[in-house]
Amino acid sequence: MAADVGDADPAGRPLWYVSYGSNLFAARFACYLAGGRAPGARWTNPGARDATPATGDRRIDLDHALVFGGPSHTWDGGPAYLDLVTPGHSVGRGWRMMHEQFEDLVAQENKLEPGAVTVSDALLHEGGVVVPDARYGRLVPLDEVEGEPAVTFTYIDRPHERAPDPAYVSLLERGLVELGLELGEARAMLRSQPQLADHD
User: Fold this and answer.
1) What DSSP designation does 42 have?
2) pLDDT of residue 86
3) What is the model's pLDDT at position 10?
């Protein structure tokens, strides 16, 4: 059943989805659109109703720290969330896609089928809960990119902190390097997060 969140934007309107966790890594992100099982994943993504690849990607700096915690379907440790409580800085990767594709990405991140989530104009621009009782159920609007909406998602209730899987941290590093950071810079950025200061 579709989440009842009001009237949706037209499916073909572009926006920027800003990733900060494993979707920093292109091969993993691509599975949310094209379908398939990403490297290291235990779950096969069905893919979006529109499998067209993202039409752009870019670095987007975020005025929030990351928090790692809660359960994961894929990793032995806690996955990343954008921390809405702790001030800080993190680096995200913006992916330009169509509105309907973003809805399907949100659905898959919350283990729902493509087509099960509707994102209204109000949620896209003001934020709020789009999938109740879900891990990544809250939309967070960000500054527009080239006149187009930018948005990410995170927890509804802040998760209990749990150290991330080293393989997960390595995947984040690889995504940041793809984005153009030097490996040392990517590691320093991640080690600046409160839970990763002493992470090897």
Assistant:
1) S
2) 87
3) 63
Q: Render pLDDT for 165-200 as a digit per residue (tens, 0 to 9).
A: 999 999 999 999 999 999 999 999 999 999 997 655
Is a pLDDT exceeding 50 seen at residue 112? yes
* 7 burial level (CB within 10 Å; 0-12, 13-18, 19+): exposed
HSE of 147 in the Cβ direction (CA atoms, 13 Å)?
Answer: 1
Nearest in space to 138 (alpha carbons), one of 1, 8, 26, 5: 5
Q: Are 123 and 99 in contact (CB under 8 A)?
A: no
Q: What is the pLDDT of residues 64-77, one digit of tens each?
A: 999 999 988 778 89
Integer Rg of the chain from CA: 16
What are the chain's domains?
A: 14-196 (3.10.490.10)
Structure tokens at 93: 């990767």
**What is the full DSSP assignment across 82-131?**
E-SSS---EEEEEEEEEHHHHHHHHHHHTT--TTS---BHHHHHH-EESS
Asked if 16 contacts 55 with a C-beta cutoff of 8 angstroms, the reply is: no
